[in-house]
Amino acid sequence: MESMKQNLVGIVGAANVFDSPEVLASYSKDESFATPMKPLFVVKPENAEQVQALVRFANETKTPLVPVSSGAPHFKGDTVPSVPQSVIVDLSGMNKIISINRQQRMAIIEPGVTYGQLQEALAKEGMTLSTSLRPRANKSVLTSVLEIEPRLNCLHQFNYTEPLRCTEVTFGDGNQIYTGEAGNGPKDLQKQWDLGKWQVHSNGPAMTDMLRMITQAQGSMGIVTWASVKCELLPTIRKMYLAPAKKSTDLEDFVYKAIWARIGDKLYVMNKAYLASLMGETAEEIAELKKVMPNWVAAFGLSGDILLPELKVSAQEHDIMEYAKQTGVQLLSKVPGVSAEAVLEKSINPSGEPYWKLTAKGSCQDIFFITTLDKTSKFIEAMYALAIEAGYPTEDIGVYIQPQHMGTSVHLEFSLPYNSADSKEAKKVKELYISASKEMSKLGGYYARPYDIWTTIQLNKDAQSYILLKRMKDIFDPNNIMNTGKLTLK
Amino acid sequence: MAFPREIYQALEDIVGKRNISENIGICETYRSIPSQSSAHYGPSEHWTPLPQAVVLPGSTEEVQNVIRICNKYGIEFKASTTFWATMGYIGSDFAIQIDTRRMKSVKIDAKNMCAVVEPFAIAATVQAEVMKYGLNINIPGVGCSSSTLANFSSWIAFGPNSISMGQGSENVLGMEWVLPNGEVLRTGSLGAGEGWFCGEGPGPSLRGILRGIFGAAGSLGVCTKMAVRLHPWPGPADFPTYGTVPAYKADFGPNFKCYTLCFPTWEAWARSVQYFHESDVAYSGHRQFNMFGRNLKGAMLNIITDADKQLSDLEELVNDPYIQKENEKMKLDYQVIIAGFSERDMEYKEKAIDYILEQTGGWKSEMMLEKDKHDYALLYLTRLGHKNLNFVMCGAYEGTFGLSSNVWKTIQVVEEAVALKRKWEVEHDSIAATGGDSAMGSLSGIGGGGATGWEFFTNFDAYDKNSVHGTAKFVDGNQEFHNKYSFGPDFCRWNSDVRHMNGYNYTQEEHNQMFANAPQPWVYAYQYKIREAINPKNLCGTYFRTVDPKCLEK
Amino acid sequence: MALQDYRAMMERCSTCAGCKFIPFDKIKSLRFAENCPSIGYYNFMTYSARGRFQLSQSLLDGRAQLDDTVTEAIHTCTSCGYCDVGCKVTRYNLEPLEHNIELKAYAVENGKVLEGQKPVIENLKKEHSMIPGAKKANRTDWAKELNLKDLFKDKAEVAFFAGCKYSYDPKLQKMAQSAVKLLQSAGVDLGYLGAADNCCAGRAHQMGFFNEFKERAEANIKAFETAGVKIIVTPCSDCYHAFKRQYAKLGLNIKVLHVVEYVDQLIQEGKIKFTKEVPLTVTYHDPCHLGRLGEDYVPWDGKEKKIYNQIQIWEPRRPRYNGAYGIYDAPRNILKAIPGIKLVEMERIREYSWCCGAGAGCNESNPEFSAWTASERITEANATGADALVTACPWCKDNFVNAVDENGNKIEVLDIIELVRQAI
């Protein structure tokens, strides 16, 4: 063990190797039901060379590595070691914004860069980055895009992996390449820039999308040390609306129509528990909001930037009102308990502390998967039925429907707040989480990001993918050192 | 090696007597001649090898069984759809050609904007079917005569509407793919039987091993079904075409406009393109008709829009003072289609175009606003049904240069490329003298903008061997330009590292030598390992670029 | 021209697929997007115009042989000419139909014909009819009661040429009789060739039997000229094409009209008036040889020239046959003029119409293929919801009458003249 420490120190320096019980304990569990396991060390590399050296060392010594980029709290079990003797590779210290290019609308970021940090820098250049819903303040943008967290604007999600484009990755075998367009040029960003290449195209580098080997992978294939992301122009005008509804199905036609008409830059649906949780600053406030808010709300946003923004927004406002009328919904600037503008502000900005999902009850367990909008009501009904059976209050179940990939599918999320200090309640929620996860899968819910128990649930339904994923794991991480045990690929 | 009876019989048992042939006359029609079609390693006079047999499977199961036989006996195989591109043809003598013509269904989920297509569903048929539901599909520059599935799975697939719809890779949802070892992979949500809506995951996306920045050109097995994302079509349910063959035109109504936008400088041109990249104004954007060349495009447009004109009228039209004037005005141009989802939306988009022109000093070509030309261009760019006008002038063409990069880099070097081509046109007679600049292609090779996808149409006569050889020399001579600006190989030499000019495959040793020296050779070493994992007998030719990792470990 | 004269075309074909689909701009559905019955039925590339170009190269270069499979592939083409239209949407210098027929002639020259073709050609030589078993002695039986002038004995402006199918087929003879009566009632001074009436042999040409065609064509031209014919009118689309395009090349200088053109003209002139309503929804099938192959022949003698280094043009300007000016409107005008008729169109119409399957003798030489081709059309006709399929060619009608669609359903098949007669 001491020899390992010396080796780690040799790679990242003594100041960046941690093994105090407190530090190790903080990385040994998260907010999920994943079984806690203490790592052996925590290391904080400062650059890609150190990361590569760590991976090579891990290969030589068969040491499991667990990459972590965001700050706590974590929720999905993916950063909790699955096997003993693991070394946490905490990349949060690598937090440089390597470049911002307004002309190409590209930014290159290190793993530790947070949304708040990046959005501030981009705003100075008149740009912004599409975001997942109210990310944690210490959430790594790179992890967020690498794990394909759903974005609020599906219409610009030309690629499923948008806005992620190119990366620098050290695979589990210790080899380091650039993915996407960047893999076709010299392995030096400055040299690529000098040649006019701005790491724009995510596919490739050749006939394999290397990026797709590392996305949704929970760090089980390699460690990414920078990523280029496609930015958008910072709106000069924004308008936000809320469409209240009694049932989620009342909003389906409207959502489909807005997607078809390619209108707006924000579109998502929430039930009142989810919306109250997003908006409420305290548990009491959340409880009050739930009393007054409509059962369901579709949030819809319009924006204009540099090209005749007023005219664009006024035309689109007229059109969306017409579509709303046609589909039997009302678009309002406020609904009981909340204004549309406030929803927008909360949605696009990072959360304060504590993380908003923890406000209601201190803990929260999510179940999310991909389906199509027309099937969501089936899942919602089933979830409520399971909750009743489990004795979990249905009024606490938060539901979030986020269209993605230009609307061809939706991210459907159930959020189950609970009090983890209450062991009975925690047990109940855990059981509900397990039974509901299985039931959702039975009903056709697709765990594209198969965290924790979803791995087994999903891969057991798809033997051929499972076999091939194992073969890919053999190629990119032959010694099974990358987040060992995740995705059960070995 | 003679094709043993037992193999033929085994294949016949799978597809039935009607759907297999080893007759030499039949098999001869499954050879590609790279000077005549799209090879990207030509022009070359050689034919690809003669297949031992041609088989036409009718289902995924039949494809799988054919491939199992190929694995059992070590037979190379390659599937193709329309047989337009040389990359779809076999590359060795002990090989069979799979013709997927019998598999052509299109199934639509209009609500969730997705269609499941089989290999021989060409883009025109997919588009025709989805338009009935107010939907549209990305049709790549190769045109609607090509297979949607083949384009999206096996090559690049960007075209006029990629700016608003994304290119092939971006539009792929679930896929069903028979791997070279005979296993059937169903990607994403399809793998667990949950539907076609998502082609990614679970976890790392296996679709990543099936296609990258471009596809593996049939060298990783056979894609038998693919779900493709559809896009809104605010136009009529079918094309209200009018006009006399071949000058078909269409009027889609007041909410569609096709403009040819022109600019005084390349810098102004690029600034205008950037506006389109940064907005959702353009439904389609292509520098299309410049394919006829800077000097001839005005005259050619007057020919192709008039059913009674033909190439014999070209010289007279080129010398027509009105056309000369209009031609000069559209020297630095491109076409853009705007589609209004409402009257107000259309009004905004019209004003946005005016604003862009105002900001960049550009103008709209008046000639291209004449009704017959407008309606022709609108129909042309929406369906790409006249795409094979590529060949009209000389019978053959190659895309050369290939300035597929970001727009700002492209414009800095385009005139140098123009001058190189013009010099060759003047000093040699092997290629058509169209005016140097015949650069054409997509305003954006990826959804939402960010990369042009250009080539210089270089027209030659495949029947005239001097023309074929001269064109090859022209391309070779341009490589210095490509090296200088790091554009890689010339567009028409892109595939020169995956098939010999004589039509045959490379050996692994040859590929090792080529790719061991790539800037990032591990990319190709990983591809080698992927091939070993799903194609252990290496049965699909050598379009999948690989280097044996041992060469890098030395 | 000989097969080797098509080398340039063979090498300039670019595998664009235009010969296999209706013009891409016209595609309205997956189901009816394709054209070329030959590849439609056999599926191998060889059966398309592109495949035929490539096959020719291989035959000329000695790689492929004229074996039974290749012979069948060569002859299993209805010479419907769609490939020509599809090709010429984007190409100005390829002649796929001419080449297809030349390839057939190459096979014929080498003694490679299909069994089913032999009785057809034998009968042409022996009995001057391409209907096996038909006797010359009975050729004009259909006209006995019609008071038609024999132009070798009497003078008339217009020669009515029924063609073999109308002359011999007992089910169709009354159509020819109706056509004659119709024209006579409209005051047309009508005659026929009487004993000199023989097969036009147009189908022999489309089958690649050039010598047999030429022999008959020259005899017929002489007969028309001797009889002093000013206008030939025929209800048969095959005959129409033969006279208008193929005979014209051999020097026929007489105006040729299909009966639909004449009737349309007579309706416009008020010489045919409709008095009865025919309450029927119909769809119209454009016969290949009347539609896209029905364009006027324009003499041309020139050569290829290159401009701008490599751009190929014809000097002088060469006529282009691409179906643009075939006979499409006359039959539709007639249908629209008949009270009560509602015309609904199929997807594949006019220059990109689907073939009936009987062309180039395929109904005799390869009946299965021919029946499938007809069945495709019946399926398309039934998809329109029409009560009847109307056509203007006896070969089409005969092939359709016996066909069923993909679901086993039939449709009433009517000759356009029947409808006209019903309305008078």
Structure description:
The complex is a heterotrimer of chains A (490), B (554) and C (424). Chain A has 16 helices and 19 strands. Chain A has 490 residues and is α+β, with helices and mostly antiparallel strands. In chain A, strand 5 and strand 6 form a beta hairpin. Chain B has four domains: 95 residues, Uridine Diphospho-n-acetylenolpyruvylglucosamine Reductase, domain 2 (2-Layer Sandwich); 127 residues, 2-Layer Sandwich (Uridine Diphospho-n-acetylenolpyruvylglucosamine Reductase, domain 3); 244 residues, FAD-linked oxidases, C-terminal domain (Vanillyl-alcohol Oxidase, Chain A, domain 3); 47 residues. Chain B is built from 18 helices and 20 strands. The longest helix of chain B has 21 residues. The radius of gyration of chain B is 23 Å and the shape is globular. Chain C has 424 residues and is α/β, with parallel strands linked by helices. Chain C has a domain of 139 residues. In chain C, 41% of the residues lie in helices and 10% in strands. In chain C, helix 3 packs across helix 6, helix 9 crosses helix 18 and helix 13 crosses helix 14. Chains in contact: A-B, B-C. At the A-B interface, helix 7, helix 8, helix 11, helix 15 and helix 16 of A face strand 9, strand 11, helix 7, helix 11 and helix 13 of B.
Global morphology of chain C? globular
CATH superfamily of one domain in chain A: FAD-linked oxidases, C-terminal domain
Structural class designation of chain C? alpha/beta
State the end-to-end CA separation of chain C. Answer: 49 Å
**Rg of chain C from C-alpha positions?**
21 Å
Summed up, the helix count of chain A is 16
- In which order are the strands of the major sheet of chain C placed? 1-3-2-4-5
| CATH hierarchy: architecture of one domain in chain A | 3-Layer(aba) Sandwich
Gist?
The complex is a heterotrimer of chains A (490), B (554) and C (424). Among the domains of chain A are: 97-169 and 205-233, Uridine Diphospho-n-acetylenolpyruvylglucosamine Reductase, domain 3, CATH 3.30.465.10; 237-442, FAD-linked oxidases, C-terminal domain (Vanillyl-alcohol Oxidase, Chain A, domain 3).
